[in-house]
Amino acid sequence: MSKRVLRTRLCDLLGIEYPILSAGMGPTLIGEPNGAPVELVVAVSEAGGLGVLGGAGFNLEELQSAIREIKSLTDKPFGVDLLLPKNLPDGAGMTGEVPLARILQSLPGPYVEWYEKVRESLGLPESDLTVRSDTVTMHADEAIKICIEERVPLFCAGLGDPGFMVKDAHAVGMKVLGVVGNAKNAGRVAASGVDFVVAQGHEGGGHTGRVGTMALLPQAIDAAAPVPVIAAGGIGDGRGLAASLAMGCIGVWVGTRFLASREGGAMELCKQRILESTDEGTRVSTLYTGKTSRVNTCKFHEIWDGSGLPALPFPVQVVLASALIRGFVQAGKDEYVAGFAGQISGLIKEIKPARDILLEMVEEAADILSRKLKEDVVVQ
Ligand SMILES: Cc1cc2nc3c(=O)[nH]c(=O)nc-3n(C[C@H](O)[C@H](O)[C@H](O)COP(=O)(O)O)c2cc1C
Question: Atom 18 (ligand 1): residue with closest C-alpha?
């Protein structure tokens, strides 16, 4: 069978064959594998899409070596995704490598008491995790400098407005995108000079806003114009791709479907959660990071809801949730473990190579757009 052609302006702007980007996915929590590691980036870029490295969990040195590793494995374009949060709290001013157990003891009393109560009742070990002070999220300026020095083809800001670095990125031939969850931010980020806006709907995995993808896309497109929009949130096959293009998007940014691929970086247990999930098998909670994020449902939510505690601010809540998830895994309490994932989880029934996922998506979208719509829809 001859290869399908499915091209949009995005392909010309990025030098890729198909308008499909695998989303930048960091680890769900501290100590977990990176959702979009080097292997996924390379597989997606080699298959004709554009793979985006989830940079959020790295320290500066790891970021640079991952970028260099990608370059050594493919000469195709790729991206790097970083989080650029505003107003990190004081605790972010730490130095060196700090044991999570120590940070936990400095949390407000009710949180320490709840943490110890959970640990005791479920027989969890004391946390052996550490956090390093040189993570890219805490040193965004230096991380961006590395991306510019390495001339990463596409810089992606998963959180925050990357406007301040666009000029420097463009000067070395890089492109820049910003991920948003509502029309207001689509307009704001577009006006800051980025090349593309990714509009991610409420159904998406990880940090998520309040507006569903179907309602968000046309409003984000209008708000961002003339900057083109890439669709995200709930896209898992060629139907989602075709619908996004029909809406006026120039491509798609796909997270959960590529996370549940052979090269996707989630813990096996979390991949399993996605396979077992129905369309209702996720929920939005501040439990994991202090910001609203979508995760597969598990018993961890029940005990958190029972605590009656409000979430701590980002990234302090990450410390609390990470320590407990690690404890659940170590103690074999699998029913308390799940990771970031979107509502499209219910569609995913098999862990496949990323290349197959991408090519099937292309094939299905091309069939819808070239044949099926003409058969099913009467237009005069
Ligand atoms: C495990 C996981 C980790 C994620 N980490 C990040 C991240 O570090 N930076 C980011 O911009 N988005 C992150 N996201 C969100 C994705 O980039 C993407 O917007 C989302 O997955 C799209 O919705 P979908 O899951 O329905 O495809 C993450 C999503 C998942 C599932």
Answer: 255
